[in-house]
């Protein structure tokens, strides 16, 4: 079970609309359950660095089956995951903006958003999660 390109585009569109409401250009990445990129969109004037950061946030959320902001405390010095962000070819992100996308309790993909303050990235990414959940309820999503 994996996300398809059309569904990823719909999630990105809804996410971009929230970024416009926040007033911050963002880069939005949607990955499959293995963290491989399905689609990515860079809004006009979004930071170039956000291209790789958003992709890595989606990778992290998919690879670890959790939102990236949940890794912050555990990866501080002295805690059990200290240094986590230096592993996996430095693709692990330990700050907010990456969320898994679930279907039937299973992670089938992830979204990563970068371009603003962490709180903005989270707010915008959460719009993508909401769009995914709406698409699920309409039955217009992943291949089975």
TrEMBL record:
| Domain of life (superkingdom) | Archaea
Q: Which InterPro entries match?
A: GlcG_carb_metab_protein, PduO/GlcC-like, PduO/GlcC-like_sf
Q: What is this protein called?
A: ATP/cobalamin adenosyltransferase
Q: Which lineage do the record's taxonomy fields give for this organism?
A: Archaea, Methanobacteriati, Methanobacteriota, Stenosarchaea group, Halobacteria
């Amino acid at each position: 079970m994996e996300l398809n390109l059309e569904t990823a585009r719909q999630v990105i569109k809804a996410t971009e609309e929230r970024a416009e409401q926040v007033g911050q250009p963002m880069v939005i990445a949607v990955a499959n359950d293995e963290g491989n990129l399905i689609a990515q969109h860079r809004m006009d004037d979004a930071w170039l660095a956000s291209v790789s950061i958003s992709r890595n946030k989606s990778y992290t959320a998919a690879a670890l089956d959790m939102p990236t902001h949940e890794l912050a405390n555990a990866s501080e010095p002295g805690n059990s995951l200290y240094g986590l962000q230096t592993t996996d070819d430095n693709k692990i992100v330990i700050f907010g903006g990456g969320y898994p996308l679930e279907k039937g309790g299973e992670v089938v993909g992830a979204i990563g958003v970068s371009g603003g303050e962490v709180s903005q990235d989270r707010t915008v990414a959460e719009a993508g999660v909401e769009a995914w959940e709406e698409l699920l309820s309409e039955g217009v999503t992943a291949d089975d």
